[in-house]
């Protein structure tokens, strides 16, 4: 405090002296006259200015010497770093100036300039945490990955900067596509900061990509504990992970563990269609057909789906088509007017060779919402009723260019998947597949297939009067299980 006050007083004195001297100089027409110790000096205005500048330089030098004397005095009193701090003060000023310029250049996107300023700051400052981190980030911005990696590795030595260093190396490995190394780094970062939300998301994504479902469930639980995930979303995603864990155990042949995991996934999210289907088959393997029926009915009540119908058919695989038709009515009692229910009943009646009832079950779907599946079912009905081949071909030709109907679509990138998977193959999104109709692109096809219907007899708009039942010589057997499993 005393030294600071002393410097302020000196500065005010200098300013006052300069002001007084300028006033005297202006009042003196012939120059500045100085009389001292019997001598008299006359200075012209220019000479006076030079003398004043020399006096100012002398005062600056005196101040520096005074600072050095104070540092020496402190050193003699036991402050071992007083002299080094005196000489390093100017270096610190230059270093912090370079550090500031580097940070501003980095924020402005000037990677090369930021790297140059960071190297300069590293030279002047003894602050490795700040300068090395700036060097690493500036090198990344400039595209110098080698220097960035070296800087991050230097930061690993300190407990204070270890997490930042691991995070930087993790981002580098993600950019390089090295998922295996990135997973190890993400696990280490999670150990250092278990509540870091960005690390949770990266680790969960990497574990899902590596099919480490057990580890992904643990990470999801940590995210719930950190308060970054609602409970309903957690139950849904944990059910997805449990389902995939069950599938993996099933692939390894441990059916008991697979059954338990599949049932657990279904309990956590009853409306998850793949979980319901797998849990039902697990219960069938245990011999508990009633429980399997309950699981499928509950899932069907939430959303009718072909996979649920296929699992329901597996409950009694050896039953006759007529018995299957009767048993399925207990499933389709919920949502009887749903399009999936009507298509399913039409397929079951075709398998039972009740083609008029199949036509009634199908209704006007081929007119209100024609899809490949509904048009193919209509062609099967026409074939079963003995219609001309031209009529059957007419329905099949329309099916060539009809929409595909509901599919597993990614809500993030709209990619269509043949089967459900927790990870989108196109964009890598987790739990983004939903059963819905994908957006159809309108316009003529490259092969002109839409004109094929004009080359054959058009499909009949209304059914002909029902003829007397005639047993065909060689009735065509339609495998409804294959149709149900195929889902259109």
From TrEMBL:
Keywords: Membrane, Transmembrane, Transmembrane helix. The keyword Membrane applies. The chain crosses the membrane at residues 5-26, 46-76. Gene3D superfamilies: Tetratricopeptide repeat domain. Residues 438-476 are annotated as: Disordered. One of its GO terms (cellular component) is membrane. This is Heme biosynthesis protein HemY. It comes from Paragemmobacter aquarius.
